[in-house]
Amino acid sequence: MAASSPATDLYIIDVDAHITEPHDLWTSRAPASLKDRVPRVIGSGSERAWIVDKDVQISTGNPASVIGKDGQKSRGTEFFGWQIEDVHKASYDMKARVEVLDRFGLFAQILYPNVAGFGSQNFMKVEDSDLRLACAQIYNDAMAEIQADSNNRLFPMALMPWWNIEQSVAEVLRAKDMGLKGIVMCSDPDSIGLPDLGEDAWKPFWDACNDTGLPVNFHIGASETSFNMFGRAAWPSNGMRRRLALGSAALFVENARVCSNLIYSGIFDRCPNLKIVSVESGIGWIPFVLESIDYEWIETGAQKEMPLKMMPSEYFRDHFWGCFWFERVAPTRLIDVIGEDNVLFETDFPHPTCLYPNVQDFIAEISVDWGETRKRKILQDNASKLYGIDLPG
Description:
Layout: E1 13-18, E2 40-42, E3 49-52, E4 56-60, H1 94-104, E5 108-112, H2 129-149, E6 154-156, E7 158-159, H3 165-178, E8 183-184, H4 203-212, E9 216-219, H5 240-252, H6 255-264, H7 267-270, E10 276-279, H8 286-299, H9 314-319, E11 320-324, H10 329-333, H11 335-338, E12 343-345, H12 359-366, H13 372-387
Parallel strand pairs: 1-5, 5-6, 7-8, 8-9, 9-10, 10-11, 11-12
Antiparallel strand pairs: 2-3, 3-4
Helix pairs in contact: 2-3, 3-4
């Protein structure tokens, strides 16, 4: 069992990190009839690519890790050319990941995907709906194995086959039965012509999430609509480094739109136990957005269209959690406004902008004026309660 953090004497839970999927994640678990159709890597060197079925490319071979195999962090764009052999073993080997947790003084970590897209939207490039479902389910089976093998130190979130509402409901229930602690959802199913998440067609899905208690995690960039890192965020005249910087910054605040729509939809009046996590989006935007949606709710007469039981901002307290990592202003000045029960800590390892390697130094800096109760909630207890993670002792 891991020791608590030496800097805080707490069992710190990192609520957003990523797995660089090993090249055999799907093929080693697929039935024989699907081994040459599920996600797999073809090509060599920089020409590698993840494909599904015969030749449908869903991702490049880039491992989406900025931590080199020597432990040094890339602070430019050279990591775009890296392959799995070039990155730190803890990016893809989860035994090595647990060792990194111990090194950083972290007790547990919530994990999100890369290859499928942050909302499994990349699987929509595959025409065969049965194959798409198999891709999601095999991934979830692998994640359940990782959780068990880590002795409950790593907690991957289950992908949803969101292109089919009935299958999504079934996968929520299956994830719960497998012991997974939450799901990761596409933010914009309407982008492919499905009903949007506020429409009645999704009520069985929300009911399943409400009844199982599994948190619904909306990671930034969780749809073709919201993932615009190299789309409209930066002007074309910017170079690649500036485009990466501006695209990353713009991506963080995309979830303000998702959370606001969820509140305005009235979902929470129907599902009082529903829990939503805005992942990798920071927390500094939350007070302004809550204030603005309250103001516009009255200013536009929107309450006549959807008579909510409370003011929009009041739903945040009972149903939403935000995650921070590199921010300094919000964790030190805005916690009272946001609510210390609604804030979680993350590192985003091993992605660009991740906290690495001085995790404990950063925690000590931003929490210097926090009382012990606030430290315990934000770094440990909020995540433990939300995800149902048992702590030692």
